[in-house]
Design a protein that fits this description.
Layout: H1 15-33, H2 39-45, H3 49-57, H4 63-94, H5 96-115, H6 125-152, H7 164-180, H8 188-195, H9 198-204, H10 207-212, H11 216-263, H12 268-280, H13 284-323, H14 329-333
Helix pairs in contact: 1-2, 1-4, 2-5, 3-4, 3-11, 4-5, 5-11, 5-13, 6-8, 6-11, 7-8, 7-11
Amino acid sequence: MKQESLEIALIRYNKKTWCKSALLGFFIGLAVIVPGISGSTVAIIFKLYDQFLYAVGNLFRQFKKCFFFLLPIGIGILIGLLLGFIAVEKLLAILPFAVVGLFAGLMCGAFPAVKDELKGAKMNGRRIALLVLGVLIPIAIGIVSVGLNASGSDGTNAFATVRWWQVLVCIPVGYVVGVTQVVPGLSASAILLALGWFRSLVDSVSLDFWKSEPRIFLVYVALGVGFLLGIFTFSRLLTYLFGKARHTTYSMIVGLSLGSVVAMFYNPDVFSVYASWAAEGVNVTDIVLGIALFAAGVVGSYLLVRYQRKKDEEARLATCGTDGKTGTKGENAGTEEEK
């Protein structure tokens, strides 16, 4: 019988790696605010995804080691959330297409790093099916969320008067949001948009709203409980699946990451931009900036991927030189599931 999860060595921080983990946390925090961004995809690019999952899933079993690994990520998440609420939301209100274009370009340019995880894998029928399913899931969420928002909202905050059933429903909703933080390609904001809760929750973060409806804090607590349950349980599940069938699991993750790039251009926030263009005329500045920032994002993130590949190759060659071995952990990890 196999172990429930792989034992994964967590990196020891120096100044550079601590800042790298904090930057990962920043993108995870930002992902809650900006529709379509996946913090887990960034974790794959930074080569911290497996360690992130392991540390979250084993926080209570190996508290000291996992806590100190997650500390800079947690700090980054708080900064990302604050910046998202303060700056990104305002930019999305002014030049939404340009902002989405930048983040989509960053995700698109970084996609080769996600695809690298399937290097050497045999793409059989099951893996191709999982990859296609992964592409379709974020796109389907975007289509459903656009449909629900188009038919449902009258502009009233969903939590203007908090009801007991909303508090209970927030626990499973928080669970799903937690899952989005560890599954690349899924977006927390896209899920909340599909429910029609995203704008209501963002607008609720104000002193005036808290004074008028203090029961909103029950909503926050319920979402937080569900979120923690989702992120802990799914981290353990994914760590287990990587140990059993890494390439098969990653086939779906690669699809999810690719589908999320498409979904960034089709969700309620961006669809409202298209609707305003149709009614009032195209905002040329927004489009030109969006195209330019998309291209800049692609180039910038791909250069980062190339730099990371170079560093990984140098590390592999150094390991080969000292051990006299030619195999790597990544190459051997998929051996058993190829049978």
